[in-house]
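Following up on my earlier thread - several people asked me to post the actual chain instead of describing it. Fair enough. Here it is, all 417 residues.
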Amino acid sequence: MQSFDRLVLPNGLTIVGERIPHFKSVAVGVWVRTGSADEAPLRQGYSHFVEHMVFKGAGERSLKQLAEEMDLIGGQMNAFTSKECTCFYAKVMDEHLDRALSLLADLTMRPHFPAGELEKEKGVVLEEIAMGEDMPEDMVHEQLALALFGDHPLGGSILGPKENIEAANRESLLAFLRQRYLPGNAVLSVAGHYDWPALTEKVRRAFEGWQGAYVHSLYPPVSYRSARLFRRKDTEQTHVCLGFPSLAMDEEGSFSLAVLNNLLGGSMSSRLFQGIREDAGLAYNVYSYASAYVGAGDLVLYAGTNPRSAQEVSDRMAGEVKRLLRQGVPAEEFEKSREQIKGVYVLGMEATTARMNAMGKGQLLTGKLRSQEDYLQRLKAASREEAMALAERIFRTPPAASVVGPENIRFDAWEEI
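Reply from S.P.:
Thanks for posting it. Predicted structure:
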């Protein structure tokens, strides 16, 4: 039976862990509840920019020392920013856990933000934003968020608008960090080979002096939109995205939705993939996915295709959704989809980083730690009836639409659902 360790330190930092005695490695991450959905308009992009800047020197370590120290012990260190959180993480052999904690403590507590490096890193982030302009598949998804969420924080870009990055300075970034990157707004997650009493003492020492709490308030309620946005771009393919309001994180029905999404467009055996790519040969890339946030969620359908085929592909996607609503899902197809999700989940959770991520995100955003047994039980409880009720709720809503390519398309077929 899977079990977790959990402790809240006097400074408010929550430590969660899963001990795996037969491993020789350990993954550790500091999760901070700050992301693009928690930023004021003039600060949009700051969480991501801060994520970049902490690696430019921290504590007694220079930029070069931060880059070299993990390499010297054969470890891995990185970070990422999402709409609702930021994570700094490392994976090392268990004998190097002290060093990993020391590095992460420097990154989160004592970054330098040197002025010269800040100006250089602005260029890097601006290039990252510009790179998105050359990646229409990324662009169409970002545009869809705007079409579905509008000016709500969830509709904004994680990277932020370039004018915010250009205007950022050392003082504004440090003020942002000092307000958000605090132990009361963070979770330290560990998975792998460790001794719990020794680990908690190591964390106390590494993060000694870290104090404070950020009063986090959930973004305002979402009013979903059904906007249709088109970006003209001279590309070889037309990229089409449809977005529907869906379930929020941990909302009732999430596992039935996962099975539904998987059989619709979440795998190579899915209806969209088989019908549009394999049978009709109209697209190389076609899929669907569900995203769940603390206060909202969406279900997205995507296809990239020759501009001459874009209208037909969109109509065929609508046709697959109509068929789903009218004919339902056979029991055998539902069970195959459930079993596929189970296999992907079990295999994925054999990695310490995946387990660390699941614990850190779960504790930070929901305050819950879900065991693998609990996950599999909830997946087993998913039902066709619940999935079809969700399909009716989701797909009877007019979709938001995003198109990037040489020409726009119509969505008449979606109006008929």
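The CA atoms of residues 62 and 68 lie 10 Å apart. That should answer part of your original question.
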